[in-house]
Amino acid sequence: MVSDAGRTESIILATASYDYSIRLWQAHKATYLRHFQHPEFQVNALCITPDRQLLAAAGFQHIRMYDILSTVQGSGPVLNYEGIQKNVTAVGFHQDGKWMYSGGEDNSARIWDTRSRNLQCQRTYNSHNPVTSAVLSPNQQELIIADQAGTIHLWDVRTNQSFQLTPEPDSMVHHVDIDPTGTLLAAVTYKGNCYLYNVREGFSVSPIDTGADPQQLSTSPPRGANGGGGSSQPSKATEGLSTL
């Protein structure tokens, strides 16, 4: 997980491994800064809050928060969100840090109010299958959720309405992402195909065969995009896609 405050020297990289620790790095120098002590070896996802003060670590039945500004080596979590039955596979934040979202293998996506002293979940969406990936749209209103059954759920957290896309029936969706303009939704499946959807204009682009089994992907604006809207041309849409 990388956090950038606008200057190269301020970019922080967070990594986790199976040694019960989470490490912070100064990314542009590849310099180790300090580490946090994590109470379990498994970390499924990391995310830094928009104000760069806390780091969320999603694991088994818990989301633990660490103080990035702490200078103490080996410090533990300062907050612990629990009440989840299985693995937490995705975590992220509203752009203003008002709430946090998560997805997990208990067939649920959750919204947590980070401003409240009550560390319990405020809202829950039932995906009916284990969640593999989740990402918040740039409009800060729609949570995009992928599951093991091959369904992509677009959940409007304000109205509590949702609709579904199914790229390949019975083929697990490994990962989803949406470009910064909120136009192009990308998903990679267990069969190695990458699907692109224009969520504003309601059409899909022919799938891309990656020739592999990609686990994640990321998107960026198409070249020449000004951020005010996305291209409706498939040739432009594929320019903003990179697989990891």
Automatic annotation (TrEMBL):
Major subcellular site: cytoplasm
Highest taxon listed in the record's lineage: Eukaryota
Pfam families: WD40 (PF00400)
Keyword Protease: no
Span list, region Disordered: 207-244
Gene3D superfamilies: YVTN repeat-like/Quinoprotein amine dehydrogenase
Biased composition (Polar residues): 232-244
Localization of this protein: Cytoplasm
GO biological process: regulation of actin cytoskeleton organization; TOR signaling
InterPro entries: MLST8, WD40/YVTN_repeat-like_dom_sf, WD40_repeat_CS, WD40_repeat_dom_sf, WD40_rpt
SUPFAM superfamilies assigned: WD40 repeat-like
SMART domains: WD40 (SM00320)
One annotated Gene Ontology cellular component of this protein: cytoplasm
Residues passing through the membrane, by range: none
Keyword list, A-Z: Cytoplasm, Repeat, WD repeat
Oligomer and partners: Part of TORC1 complex. Part of the TORC2 complex.
Summary of the function given for this chain in its UniProt record: Subunit of TORC1 and TORC2, which regulate cell growth and survival in response to nutrient and hormonal signals.
Entry's family note: Belongs to the WD repeat LST8 family.
Full protein name: Target of rapamycin complex subunit lst8
Organism of origin: Cyprideis torosa
